């Protein structure tokens, strides 16, 4: 097909104006022969070609034609008929919707009946090659301007655009059999009658019902049915409150009595923790899909009130399920995310999650997003809640097609959802279904919406429910009878009443029925609970040597590495030969040993492949072949588990949520997220607060995720110093005032009872052990590690193989082992500390010659607090003053956490003095000199043996 360039002078002023109105480039017109014609082909029906005929031919043929681009702006999307889904009532002047506008295009009424040969780029003709202009316009309006509004012309892939056009333009595509219509009606009955039942039984309870968007239930079921038909076996869902109970009942198919019992006012918190409100809970269910007769696993991930926080968690869990199944193309496992319109537009984690969708180590090969578009956020008008025309505009950043649909047209909704599922399976890309609906009640059932939206709710009170409208339609066309419809209602009402009766049985009140990520077989061995012990975490020396050898080599031939990296590898070889490790090599050995044991290791975060501080280098880059890389860790053993190390997008909230979800999928994986600097977890605080610190208490969800947070006061400024340990310690659940009973298994029982583990290791060996302990424990807890910066290369921060071989373990406390320990009765001061400051203290003690007078003990595990070992250390030095020394400011760091615990274990008989920086607003100074002055000041205090004399406790 040759291209014909048309100059504006040849087109004439009217046609040029028309082209501009239609946004058609003058280079976009095409002729139908290899030789450019002198004029465009004439229409059938007499007369030569007019400018308008020529324009319409180009208009139909050009992929940027106006109905496809802007038809959604005039589509009838609002069921209430009072609002514009795009917040703009303006109708583009170039959309011909009435005969009155013919004059704008210089057309006469008779022109509409002329027939045109259709170009191959349109599908509106079906099997017909020619159509009248009137019919062309009618078909385009039916496709793009009725109850479905399509946004897809921004996609820069012609094949994908053509695929969508074919799905919607082809005549007769939205036809349903009588059986399909009856199924849709039955699903609407279940959706609506479930809400009605809850309203009758618990009229004064919050339940965040689905009234006004009952079609969401058949919509989700259609997506699942279609996906199951195409081979999907596992669907992972995330959603906020609205309609959650209905989804649990009618999509996941949770037993109704389990849902109803959650309304029991006498329901007590489960033994495992606090529990959560019913519309936050998740679940997991394996069942037969009755439409496809195939097995399918459905899980709904528990979610707090931070509505979109669950998005990356679902994506991480989905990625893990795909990984463990070997489902690289996402043909077996998929995710569905349900959003509210205000949250979808307003919460930044939505954007972060979308930007993970096509990254190699994070993609889930497409997600179906369903937006429940209430056209209101709590009480906020959408015009006050977003700047974009639609709440879904954020999806355009990843070229995801967006299908807006009037939620009071069930058949249109079902067709759109079917196409969305097929799109996801065909192109492995995200897609958005925007259900434009309304909220029949207020934000919750106790809320009065007339206060703030009187006109909207007057219309809602007059609105006929979608079930009645659709039932009347099917009865009128003879698909069902009134009696059949009423019997369907009565049948489901009986099911609800019978389940309500069973819900009174107290035996079913157990939070474990609401697990969204069960780990079968993990907590038991041969049907018996695991022993609450932790084996030694050391490994044989030959294994250490082997890992060190691989860590200092390049397993691939003809692979040229950077000369600077060659020096690093030689350094690793020398350390291995000398039976020592630094921080990076200790980490390498921990990971490598777990891989040999079949434990998948995944390390994610910004720049983790090399390491922010250029210490890790787990991915080697060929200096002469672009994109050729090598991961030596994956060449350790013949049958090892895989190691995944992946640089993430510049996101904390989204990526940490993703890794949390990844860790949920299996207990037999070490999943780590590393912050570029420790305080960068600030922007992921929601995931930490809502999922990590409280997840087990609320949802009985064990999770072994590890957070690596570089921490240390080194004069680098307030934004690159503190990982804010005080925040993690404040959220720890161990009791500062309870004097513990020191049983034989005190260490493990403490770990079992805590909500997470907080450590600050001062030696590479202890870092090695705590990583291995994380997997060897018979349960899973989140692990927070404050990792070093300057200690990565500190000459004293090295460990011997002797501290890592078989029989060795993690040391919660590292006691003094020098001259002071050999004569404890001579010691005048016992300093407790944690982390990097230990090396500053040791250096200062040596310079003052106080090795025999001052003992220094390190807390490696801060929470849960090692009461037993601290008690032993204090009793060992009965005549010594006790001091806590930290480099963080007094109102930060560890002091407020450790102080009351010291008082408890010492029975308040001996004070523990604070040594460190004074309270401050900022966590650190950016002035190097100020940093060194304050460091010297508190080190002087630490070793001034008269510093606390005369002071009262």
UniProtKB/TrEMBL annotation:
<keyword id="KW-0496">Mitochondrion</keyword>
<dbReference type="InterPro" id="IPR031717">
    <property type="entry name" value="ODO-1/KGD_C"/>
</dbReference>
<dbReference type="GO" id="GO:0004591">
    <property type="term" value="F:oxoglutarate dehydrogenase (succinyl-transferring) activity"/>
</dbReference>
<dbReference type="InterPro" id="IPR001017">
    <property type="entry name" value="DH_E1"/>
</dbReference>
<keyword id="KW-0786">Thiamine pyrophosphate</keyword>
<dbReference type="GO" id="GO:0046872">
    <property type="term" value="F:metal ion binding"/>
</dbReference>
<dbReference type="InterPro" id="IPR042179">
    <property type="entry name" value="KGD_C_sf"/>
</dbReference>
<keyword id="KW-0324">Glycolysis</keyword>
<dbReference type="Pfam" id="PF00676">
    <property type="entry name" value="E1_dh"/>
</dbReference>
<protein>
    <recommendedName>
        <fullName>2-oxoglutarate dehydrogenase-like, mitochondrial</fullName>
        <ecNumber>1.2.4.2</ecNumber>
    </recommendedName>
</protein>
<dbReference type="GO" id="GO:0005759">
    <property type="term" value="C:mitochondrial matrix"/>
</dbReference>
<comment type="similarity">
    <text>Belongs to the alpha-ketoglutarate dehydrogenase family.</text>
</comment>
<dbReference type="InterPro" id="IPR029061">
    <property type="entry name" value="THDP-binding"/>
</dbReference>
<keyword id="KW-0460">Magnesium</keyword>
<dbReference type="InterPro" id="IPR011603">
    <property type="entry name" value="2oxoglutarate_DH_E1"/>
</dbReference>
<comment type="subunit">
    <text>The OGDHC complex comprises multiple copies of three catalytic enzyme components, the 2-oxoglutarate dehydrogenase (OGDH/E1), the dihydrolipoamide dehydrogenase (DLST/E2) and the dihydrolipoamide dehydrogenase (DLD/E3). OGDHL/E1-like isoenzyme may replace OGDH in the OGDHC complex in the brain. The presence of either ODGH/E1 or ODGHL/E1-like isoenzyme in the complex may depend on its tissular distribution.</text>
</comment>
<comment type="function">
    <text>2-oxoglutarate dehydrogenase (E1-like) component of the 2-oxoglutarate dehydrogenase multienzyme complex (OGDHC) which mediates the decarboxylation of alpha-ketoglutarate in the tricarboxylic acid cycle. The OGDHC complex catalyzes the overall conversion of 2-oxoglutarate to succinyl-CoA and CO(2) while reducing NAD(+) to NADH. The OGDHC complex is mainly active in the mitochondrion. Involved in the inhibition of cell proliferation and in apoptosis.</text>
</comment>
<keyword id="KW-0479">Metal-binding</keyword>
<keyword id="KW-0106">Calcium</keyword>
<keyword id="KW-0809">Transit peptide</keyword>
<dbReference type="Pfam" id="PF02779">
    <property type="entry name" value="Transket_pyr"/>
</dbReference>
<dbReference type="GO" id="GO:0030976">
    <property type="term" value="F:thiamine pyrophosphate binding"/>
</dbReference>
<dbReference type="GO" id="GO:0006096">
    <property type="term" value="P:glycolytic process"/>
</dbReference>
<dbReference type="GO" id="GO:0045252">
    <property type="term" value="C:oxoglutarate dehydrogenase complex"/>
</dbReference>
<dbReference type="InterPro" id="IPR005475">
    <property type="entry name" value="Transketolase-like_Pyr-bd"/>
</dbReference>
<keyword id="KW-0560">Oxidoreductase</keyword>
<dbReference type="Pfam" id="PF16870">
    <property type="entry name" value="OxoGdeHyase_C"/>
</dbReference>
<feature type="domain" description="Transketolase-like pyrimidine-binding">
    <location>
        <begin position="581"/>
        <end position="794"/>
    </location>
</feature>
<dbReference type="GO" id="GO:0006099">
    <property type="term" value="P:tricarboxylic acid cycle"/>
</dbReference>
């Amino acid at each position: 097909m040759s291209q014909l360039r048309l100059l504006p002078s040849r087109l004439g002023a009217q046609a040029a104006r028309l082209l501009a109105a239609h946004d058609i480039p003058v280079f976009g017109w095409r002729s139908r022969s290899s030789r450019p014609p002198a004029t465009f082909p004439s229409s059938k029906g007499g007369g030569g070609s007019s400018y308008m005929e020529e324009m319409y031919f180009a208009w139909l043929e050009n992929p940027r034609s106006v109905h496809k681009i802007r038809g959604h702006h005039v589509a009838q999307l609002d069921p209430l008929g009072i609002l514009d889904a795009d917040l703009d009532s303006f109708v583009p002047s170039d959309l011909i919707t009435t005969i009155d506008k013919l004059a704008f295009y210089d057309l006469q009424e008779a022109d509409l009946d002329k027939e045109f040969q259709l170009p191959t780029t349109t599908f509106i003709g079906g099997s017909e090659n020619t159509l009248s202009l009137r019919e062309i316009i009618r078909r385009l309006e039916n496709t793009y301007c009725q109850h479905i509004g399509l946004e897809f012309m921004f996609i820069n892939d012609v094949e994908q655009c053509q695929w969508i056009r074919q799905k919607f333009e082809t005549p007769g595509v939205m036809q349903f059999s009588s059986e399909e219509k009856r199924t849709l009606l039955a699903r609407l009955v279940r959706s609506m009658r479930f809400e009605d039942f809850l309203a009758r039984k618990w009229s004064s309870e919050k339940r965040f019902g689905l009234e006004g968007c009952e079609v969401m239930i058949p919509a989700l079921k259609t997506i699942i049915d279609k996906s199951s038909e195409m081979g999907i076996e596992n669907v992972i869902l995330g959603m906020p409150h609205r309609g959650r109970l209905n989804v649990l009942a009618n999509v996941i198919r949770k037993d109704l009595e389990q849902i109803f019992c959650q309304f029991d006012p006498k329901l007590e918190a489960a033994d495992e923790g606090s529990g959560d409100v019913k519309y936050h809970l998740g679940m997991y269910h394996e069942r037969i899909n009755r439409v496809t007769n195939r097995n399918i696993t459905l899980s709904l991930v528990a979610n707090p009130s931070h509505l979109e926080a669950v998005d990356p968690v679902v994506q991480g869990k989905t990625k893990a399920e795909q990984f463990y199944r070997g489902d690289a193309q996402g043909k077996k496992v998929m995710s569905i995310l349900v959003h509210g319109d205000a949250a979808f537009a307003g919460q930044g984690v939505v954007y972060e999650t979308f930007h993970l969708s096509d990254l190699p180590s994070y993609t889930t090969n497409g997600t179906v997003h369903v937006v429940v578009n209430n056209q209101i956020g709590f009480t906020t008008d959408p015009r006050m809640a977003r700047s974009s025309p639609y709440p879904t505009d954020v999806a355009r950043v990843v070229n995801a097609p967006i299908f807006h649909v009037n939620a009071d047209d069930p058949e249109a909704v079902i067709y759109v959802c079917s196409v969305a599922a097929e799109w996801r399976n065909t192109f492995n890309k995200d897609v958005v279904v925007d259900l434009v609906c309304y909220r029949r009640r207020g934000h919750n059932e106790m809320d009065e919406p007339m206060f703030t939206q009187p006109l909207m709710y007057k219309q809602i009170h007059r609105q006929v429910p979608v079930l009645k409208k659709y039932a009347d339609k099917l009865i009128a066309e003879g698909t069902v009878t009134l009696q059949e419809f009423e019997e369907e209602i009565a049948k489901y009402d009986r099911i609800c009443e019978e389940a309500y009766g069973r819900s009174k049985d107290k035996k079913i009140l157990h939070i474990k029925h609401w697990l969204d990520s069960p780990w079968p077989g993990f907590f038991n061995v041969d049907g018996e609970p695991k022993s609450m012990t932790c084996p030694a975490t050391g490994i044989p020396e030959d294994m250490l040597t082997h890992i060190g050898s691989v860590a200092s080599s390049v397993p691939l031939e003809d692979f040229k590495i950077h000369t600077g990296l060659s020096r690093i590898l030689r350094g690793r070889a020398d350390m291995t030969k000398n039976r020592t490790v630094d921080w990076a090599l200790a980490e390498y050995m921990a990971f490598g040993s777990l891989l040999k044991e079949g434990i998948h290791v995944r390390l994610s975060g910004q720049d983790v492949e090399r390491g922010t501080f250029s210490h890790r280098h787990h991915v080697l880059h060929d200096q002469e072949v672009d994109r050729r890389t090598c991961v030596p860790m994956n060449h350790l053993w013949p049958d090892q588990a895989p190691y995944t190390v992946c640089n993430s997008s510049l996101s904390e909230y989204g990526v940490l949520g993703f890794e949390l979800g990844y860790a949920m999928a299996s207990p037999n994986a070490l999943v780590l997220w590393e912050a570029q600097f420790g305080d960068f977890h600030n922007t992921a605080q929601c995931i930490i607060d809502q999922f990590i610190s409280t997840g087990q208490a609320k949802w009985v969800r064990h999770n072994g995720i590890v957070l690596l947070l570089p921490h240390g006061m080194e004069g680098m400024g307030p934004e690159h110093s503190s990982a804010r340990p005080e925040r993690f310690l404040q959220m720890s659940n161990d009791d500062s005032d309870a004097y513990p009973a020191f049983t034989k298994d005190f260490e493990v029982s403490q770990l079992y009872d805590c909500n997470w583990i907080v450590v600050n290791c001062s030696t590479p060996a202890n870092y090695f052990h705590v990583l291995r302990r994380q997997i060897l424990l018979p349960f899973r807890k989140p692990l927070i590690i404050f990792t070093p910066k300057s200690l990565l290369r500190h000459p004293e921060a090295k460990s011997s193989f002797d501290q890592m071989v078989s029989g060795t373990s993690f040391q919660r406390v590292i006691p003094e082992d020098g001259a002071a320990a050999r004569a404890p009765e001579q010691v005048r001061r016992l300093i407790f500390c944690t982390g990097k400051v230990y090396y500053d203290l040791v250096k200062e003690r040596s310079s003052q010659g106080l090795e025999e007078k001052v003992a220094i003990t390190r807390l490696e595990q801060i929470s849960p607090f090692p009461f037993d070992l601290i008690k032993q250390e204090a009793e060992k030095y009965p005549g010594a003053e006790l001091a806590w020394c930290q480099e963080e400011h007094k109102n930060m760091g560890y002091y407020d956490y450790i102080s009351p615990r010291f008082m408890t274990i010492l029975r308040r008989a001996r004070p523990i003095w604070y040594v460190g920086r004074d309270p401050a607003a900022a966590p650190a100074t950016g002035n190097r000199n100020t940093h060194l002055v304050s460091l010297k000041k508190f080190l002087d205090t630490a070793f001034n043996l008269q510093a606390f004399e005369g002071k009262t406790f």
